[in-house]
Amino acid sequence: MIMTILHSIILGIVEGITEFLPISSTGHLILASQLLKIQDSDFVKSFEIIIQLGAILSVLVLYWKTIWNWEMLKKLFVAFLPTAVIGLALYKIVKTYLLGNTTVVLWSLFLGGIVLIVFELWHERQGSGALLSNGGEFNAKDLSYKKALALGFFQSIAIVPGVSRSAATIVGGLWLGMKRRSIVEFSFLLAIPTMLAATGLDLIKNYQTFSTGQFGSLAVGFAVSFIVALVAIKFLLSFIRRHNFVPFGAYRIIMALVFWLIIL
């Protein structure tokens, strides 16, 4: 089935909800496209990349004062470099062989869920504490350039669909000893240059192949994901004040098992 405006709205909602949660927005978009029986194509793969920028731009609305800080911009640039280099080098492989690959997504969701649960339990056992009721908004001074670069390498793992960019960054930040709210908010900010670059690269390579109707579908998905993501960000910040990420790990495992049963 060819993508319709209704499909764009549904996928925009899925993207907006899942982009900042540690459950993989790309993985959910791929699985949702299969459930909707949308015909796999280069445009659909581009759509799944580009509408993520709509969700990411919600961060600009909520954190514009934090972003326009020279110290913050420098550290975001350092953290962005690993993903930029690795993503550019592997762009063709990722888009040709990984995007749209249900097997890769399900294994990534399943194994990522296990890692998230195991890491959280280990993190609590170390006495680091699961909750963050005392943390304020993220400040660039809280992060060294060395840690920023390390976080960039953690985020680059998410070029594999289903891994989750936010989960990889959050686990990396907790591993490096950052406060929970600080790493969650930095993962929001780091998404901006990452998805700007990913969207820009994809548009440069493919925009000439898009029809007028496809640009319309992109615009709708983009706008819907932006609006829904505004709510999702506030939900996640509220959630982490009282909970850890174990429920998201369990959700990932259940999702993978359910889809394996559906496919089989």
Structural features, described:
The protein has 264 residues and is mainly alpha-helical. It has one domain (5-263). Helix content is 76%, strand content 0%. The longest helix is centred in the N-terminal third of the chain and has 29 residues, at 70-98. Residues 129-135 have low confidence and may be disordered.
Please outline what is shown here.
It contains 10 helices and no strands. It has 264 residues and is mostly helical.
Stretches where pLDDT is under 50 for at least 5 consecutive residues are 129-135
> C-alpha Rg, in Å?
18 Å
Alpha carbon gap, first and last residue: 22 Å
If you average the pLDDT, what whole number results? 88
Tell me the domain tally: 1
Total strands: the figure is 0
β-strand amount: under 5%
Q: What's the number of helices?
A: 10
SSE pattern: HHHHHHHHHH
Helix content estimate: over 70%
Cα shape = globular
Helix/strand/pairing category: mainly alpha
- What composes the largest sheet? none
What order do the helices and strands come in, and which of them pair?
Blueprint: H1 5-18, H2 25-35, H3 42-67, H4 70-98, H5 102-125, H6 145-156, H7 165-175, H8 180-206, H9 212-239, H10 246-263
Helix pairs in contact: 1-2, 1-3, 1-9, 3-4, 3-8, 3-9, 4-6, 4-8, 5-7, 5-10, 6-7, 7-8
